[in-house]
Design a protein that fits this description.
By secondary structure, this protein is mainly α. The protein has six helices and two strands, in the order ααββαααα. The radius of gyration is 33 Å and the shape is rod-shaped.
Length: about 180
């Protein structure tokens, strides 16, 4: 500013021209500052709206995934597994994965104080699917194990059923609290 005034004095610019140039300079400077400020406000507003939309989408997807998990783990979907020549058991053998639940955890959808239950639920869902895979592996190599394979399969079925009940209870609880 002082430098600009000095340049005007050296070149003997008339005062009215100097004031006009300084006015243009100040107007340009003020509008630039105002533009940057408004841009920052709009950027913050857009990020806030985008986050709110993402949270709404995650909530809808999370409820849909948990509802689908509950439907897949419904006891009405149980199949009969032959343990031996004279015994069988029913078990729900659905593969379920907590894809949206894990994404919601990673994206910070849950408050840190409330994230423990969803993290445990995701682990239990993965554990359920692992137990189902274990049962299928026992059933596929049943002839190798001989007479003891029925006990192994029964033990795997008990693990599946116990995990299924816990997953169903925790999924319902999470749906009710969302």
């Amino acid at each position: 500013m002082i430098l600009l005034h000095f340049v005007f004095r050296v070149y003997r610019t008339p005062t009215d021209e100097e004031l006009e140039i300084l006015g243009t300079f100040f107007a340009t400077f003020a509008s630039t500052i105002l533009t940057v400020f408004i841009g920052a406000l709009l950027f913050g507003y857009q990020i806030e709206r985008t986050d709110a939309k993402r949270i709404r989408q995650l909530k809808v997807l999370l409820v849909a995934e948990l509802s689908e998990t509950l439907e897949a783990l419904d006891p009405a979907n149980a199949v009969e597994v032959q343990l031996s020549d004279d015994s069988s058991a029913e078990v729900v053998t659905a593969y379920v994965q907590p894809v949206v639940l894990e994404q919601a955890i990673w994206d910070g959808f849950f408050d840190p104080s409330n994230a423990e239950a969803p993290i445990h639920l995701a682990g239990k869902i993965r554990g359920y699917s692992t137990n189902v895979a274990h049962l299928f592996s026992i059933l596929s190599i049943r002839t190798t194990f001989g007479p003891g394979s029925g006990r192994l399969a029964l033990h795997a079925i008990r693990d599946i059923e116990e995990t299924r009940r816990v997953v169903v209870k925790d999924a319902r609880s999470l749906i009710d609290h969302r």
